[in-house]
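Work through this:
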Amino acid sequence: MKFLKNMFSSRVNSQTAIEQEEKLSKSLDENLNRLKEAFSYPNNEDFKVRELYIENIHRKAVLLSLNGMVDNDAIEQHIIHPLLEGTNIKETEEVDLIKKVITSKNASKVSSLRKIIDDILIGNTIILMENYNQAISIATTKFSHRSVQPSTRETVLKGPKEAFIESGDVNTSLIRKRLRDENLVSEKIVVGERSLSKVSMFYIKDIANPELVDRVRKRIKQIKADTVMEIPMLEQHIEERSYSLIPTVLYSERPDRAVSFLQEGHIVLLMDSSSSCLIVPVTFWSLFHTPEDSYERWAYGNFIRLIRLFSFFIALLTPAIYIAVTNYHIEMIPTDLLFAIAATRERVPFPSVVEVFFMESAFELLREAGIRIPSAIGPTIGIVGALILGNAAVEANLISPILVIVVALTGLASFTIPDNSLSFLIRIMKFVILGAASLYGALGIVVSFICFMAYMSDFKSFGVPFLSPMAPYYKSSNDLILRPPIWKQWLRPFYTDPEDDIRKKEPEGER
């Protein structure tokens, strides 16, 4: 017992000593040596140490920063020049550089060595002074980034062309340019144990449910990883069911889409190094809809939605239906068509199931190859490869011509799915339902599809049912399969339990 008590007291004493060591002292040389050791100076040539002498107060100062992460012009203008030329301080008074000399607004006092290291790693400039046991941290972060460009994944014919880029400040401005609301809140959360990354959590204070905000905030703060480099890695850390095929987070490159979700009570997550955002929670309809649905007129927007819904079932069920009908339910096929199919398959040595699996696998192979091949020749290789492969397989009597039509139609339908995660879900489930159809025919299709729908009905994203507001039913503006006109969408979806569930409603009689 005495041994345990001594061990506990020694551990507390060692922790206290560590905490004391992390505090800055009044010795400039001591503080500087500890930071040089932390950043492996002088081997680490990106760690910049600039010594200054403030003549008015006869004190020595040192500026510390990391090359490539700071704005050198801002350092010269707002830090070095005021320190060397400032006349607002006297030798006899207590030095407060933030109030009297530094012209930058984003300056704060820091007394912890760990906090100084973290600030340097995110691009701040640190000022250490002689006989001063506090440092000054000034935000001077500046990274090289490309200009704002159109989205390559979520293209629209009508609507804004701007997309997020690899700059947190620019991405924030793209959101605030579209949503000029004083209740729009941006919280900064630092993640990563070794390499620090900053996550910006956006929500509208008087719309978003506080419980949902707390839930997302806790999920981010619970991340235990050396580094979280990009938004797709953050997505995998915060998702609730890592092994599920159904996504729980929406990935988007468009600021206009992020703003539309913010106005419905959702939460948007951004990172400085990523050209996209995450939107939580998510439903099936969020993945199914596109921004162009709202930008087009009522009839046009609903027309392309119906095409997309029809394509969803084609991509998911067409190969399975072909197998079920040709193997188990040939009485459903018209006689002339049955004879035509039988004639094309007369010299094919493989069962139709093997044909379908072979062609579907070949199509997935071509799709992946088209992505990995350099963009200049990728589409050409994909088209030529598909034509040559399909034609050669038919002439070699490995597959029947009608199967080429089935696989091509399935592939084209899968390209109409707007969200990449939803597309992967359909492409994988297609093989599952195809396997069930090859074993039990139409019964296998029905049972596997019912199980699939039941699982989606039970699935939740941050507490929100995946098929809501349809199943279970919640009040909304009925913007699901078909959308009403924009001026009728005055009700926010109730599945996020928003604080303010009614948008400004148009007065009666104006339409």
The longest strand covers residues 47-54. Residues 1-20 have pLDDT under 50 and may be disordered. The radius of gyration is 30 Å.
